[in-house]
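Can't attach files on this board, so I'm pasting raw text. These are the components:
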Amino acid sequence: MLEKVDLTKKLSKEEYKEKMDQLEARLGRLQRECKALNIPILIVFEGFGAAGKGLQIGRLIQSMDPRGFEVHTIKNETEEERMHPFMWRFWTKTPARGRIAIFDGSWYRRILIDRFEKRTKNKDLANAFHSINSFEEQLADDGNLIIKLFLCIDKKEQKKRFDKLAKNKESAWRVSQGDRERNAHYEEYAAMMEEMLFQTDTDYAPWTIIESMDKRFATVKIYTTVIKAMADQIEKVRRESEEQAALKAAKAAEQAETEHAEAEKTETEGKTETAADSDDVSNIAREADQEMKELQVSILSGADLTLRYSREEYKEKLDKLQKKMEKLHGELYRRRIPVVLGFEGWDAGGKGGAIKRLTQKMDPRGYVVNPTASPNDIEKAHHYLWRFWRAMPKDGHVAIFDRTWYGRVMVERIEGFCTTDEWKRAYKEINDMEKDLHDAGAIVIKFWMHIDKDEQKRRFTERQQNPEKQWKITDEDWRNREKWDQYEDCVNEMLMRTSTEYAPWVVVEGNDKYYARVKVLKTVVDAIEERLKED
Amino acid sequence: MLEKVDLTKKLSKEEYKEKMDQLEARLGRLQRECKALNIPILIVFEGFGAAGKGLQIGRLIQSMDPRGFEVHTIKNETEEERMHPFMWRFWTKTPARGRIAIFDGSWYRRILIDRFEKRTKNKDLANAFHSINSFEEQLADDGNLIIKLFLCIDKKEQKKRFDKLAKNKESAWRVSQGDRERNAHYEEYAAMMEEMLFQTDTDYAPWTIIESMDKRFATVKIYTTVIKAMADQIEKVRRESEEQAALKAAKAAEQAETEHAEAEKTETEGKTETAADSDDVSNIAREADQEMKELQVSILSGADLTLRYSREEYKEKLDKLQKKMEKLHGELYRRRIPVVLGFEGWDAGGKGGAIKRLTQKMDPRGYVVNPTASPNDIEKAHHYLWRFWRAMPKDGHVAIFDRTWYGRVMVERIEGFCTTDEWKRAYKEINDMEKDLHDAGAIVIKFWMHIDKDEQKRRFTERQQNPEKQWKITDEDWRNREKWDQYEDCVNEMLMRTSTEYAPWVVVEGNDKYYARVKVLKTVVDAIEERLKED
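---
Top answer:
Structure tokens for the assembled complex are below.
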């Protein structure tokens, strides 16, 4: 997750002020609503040192009714705390129904700072993760809303902030030896954070990354995240009580025809009342959703689509890489290393062409290209991952997927072929599957073949005008094109949530086909060479 | 879990035949129903070697429509399987909707046989458990019913069966060197099984222990387990679609008053039809529930309530143990070891008396007795475990609970103070909490103060007649007494599911108060001495 974070996002003072007026009013409004509905809330601030946790908590509580929340600062254990089971101090601080507990630092220190400083042993890690997930799941099951914010800054910025704090007499005490150590070993510490995010990013308590280089941007993203989570929870609680009411009414109606009219009357009255409120909250939820998308770091927009190769450069590089690939393919077979390559991208993004160049010199007995169409009846009768599991390669073989299991969080999500719950939990399911492949020794890489909208139009038109390529373009392609923005949002979220150390996403700048094909080949060649060096 | 399994249960041929006629008819009936509702089912057979997995699968499928299931035998990996990611062979064998996949051995071999034979490394265990739970959760989320059966026999019986197989030429090949090894190290292997049960006994895929010394008993319990699980799943699927329908009808009614009458009519018609079916399945579910209780190994009924001490024996033992306890208590403090003691039991079972004798010579600054009453308003506003976490002892201190967190799976379950989902997931929540305490270094023991119904009546009457004890007896005690059988079922299930290696249940034979008090003291003294030896 972390390597895809874009830390360049900023907000001007004017943008900030404009957004904040509205956000502050909404947060206050939702806090009252959560209180009325008896929803207990935990807000967890974690992240890199000097990322601004304290400052951001200060800004967040400004719009809250002070009678409704408490802030808990989690530092080194007190003598009293050290003498209790680790989770004791957190259990005792869980909020009562209708109240908010804000944690500046949390139970995650055990697998972050404590782990870095070797107070948590490696052999205890599995238990520590189990214990954290169990804690959060129990609270979520009991109706608690858990919002986890992870504040990110880069190594240089962190050092700058530490230096600034250290220079000033009044703040020098805030920079500890430990802070300096973690800055010096920033990458090592980030790897622990990455593992923590993988193990604890659950549907009942998901993480949100807050890019915190720019304080204004971070504040707006934190407010928006909290508002969206609260609005969603309010809607969920209301929906459930509506379902209960409807079911009760239906049962009552069934049991006694005579009482029917009355029961229904009451129900309808109740309905009208909540309907008005719930429209209001729905609006907030929808707008927060939109706002989140705007704040979302667009990984795609970071791609430089002007990158290109001349025909000569292309020929030369392609030839060299294909020869390397041919050799490496034999080596993979000899060393029994499996490879899984997933290709996704815009229609006409160049998947087919890239796969063709990749495999051109490979021994056809050693790889399979799996084209992924809509699932057939037998496939539909199974879990959506079943057909991909079936196609996973043997040791020493290469499996290439032309479109993949990521359909679940793109087309199925957008077209409503699966429920919201289903695509939401798919990120974890997919990460878990790819981890299984990685643990079995596989090299796993996913490519997003990226072009811009104009380039797509050019290619579509070309296809239509060329009799030999007409079969490649259908009405559906044009229809999908109309949903470009929706897809872009989904793709950005997907890239962020499923790009892992063990199965990274590679965005391929594809406006120039030459450049794209070479980049795909080079990425695969590099990854294989890297792996072969390992053993 | 395993140490509480009672392997003495048997069924006569007549009982067996009588039960099986009905069970076979029901299983066939439910299989058709599951097919009609498109429910995919996985039935997993695991357990000790020679416990009869093959035989029992043979008996189970006798009543099934052979077009509806497949049996997968999981032995050593084939060359093909060895060359794929471990979970590949299981993913590819998941059943299509409406079909049943039966596994003779399964994905658990990785953390059982493979672990025992050191093919699975300790450092990979956390990932292996994560991967298994993820696999099962994904399938359950997708509507699969997962039934996991664990067949138990003891070491002696296992050896006898291996010897018998080995003697016969035709079956000798079935006993491998590995089987013999696992029999020789039965206890070590059982500990791995115990850990496996702890880590993978989830609400979405729970384990059922099948006592398999007597084959007839095992068959009946397997049939009953499968029937109950199927009936429950059918009811769940129907309930969900009913809820959907009711909600849809309510929404439709709201939207268009004119269409109202019609929508409702359709709905009611649909209802009547499913109601008939669902009554039928409900009956089966209820009866299977009753049947399961009868098959349940009653841990309580195994207690020998005739055990007693004379007044002299009592005095002497008590005096010796209390002196020991006094010394050990100081030692605990010095070594900073916390102790958590939970007391549950029948009303008038002698909890108070036992706690009094236990603490009599202990330094009052080093222990606290926490009486657990109905939760007050503040406690009710939190997770049910919150108040117990608050009372957990510091290092070196002893916390004694007079009634405990187990109220969740007894009084709250029986009186309907919590939902079925809530008490069902409480077993895992409680096991996780006690594991946290154990991992923090605590000694955790739970006592069930056991008396029989006659003895309770005698004590109640005595209390009522003695002016000084009258305050101890209320109408509620008499009311609870009427629910004796319900409580007994709950207690048996609780003892089975929450007695762990790290936090065992001890059933205290309590008809004789002298015997009970001494047993409690001795258990605590022994556990502390054992622990002090460890470091």
